[in-house]
Design brief:
0% strand, Ferritin, mainly alpha, 152 residues
Amino acid sequence: MKDKDTQTAIDLLNKIMEIELSGVVRYTHYSLMVYGYNRLPIVGWMKSNAEEGLAHAYKAGELVTLLGGHPSLKIGALLETQKHDIGDILRESQEHEKTALAAYYDLLKISEGGNSVLLEEYAREQIVLEELHLDEVNKMLRNPGDVKAYKA
């Protein structure tokens, strides 16, 4: 990669790290705000998402240092809407995941075409995971019997 492309990649990876860390905080908060009969499986799902976000943030940080950069200490935007209905939480989650997906696509754009196979493969793997996660949230938001496909 050229120096300019390397710095752009570092900046994008730091942005990804910040977005993923904000997901850790969001999902932890959401898991504490779930009430009702289905609390246990939903809390488990939220906690699992928080753990996954931490792993994703760490991996992005490792790539920052691999490229000679300094990992960010910032956390992405946190939104407290005071809406704690499961549907509201899932829609907020969906918006957060779309933001992460867009950042991974940005990283893919600068790494494609032989600029960095490592970053290209990383971006592709994360895009797959984010799109599957968005589909999962979409399915949770559907009514039983509603089979429309998720569209990124």
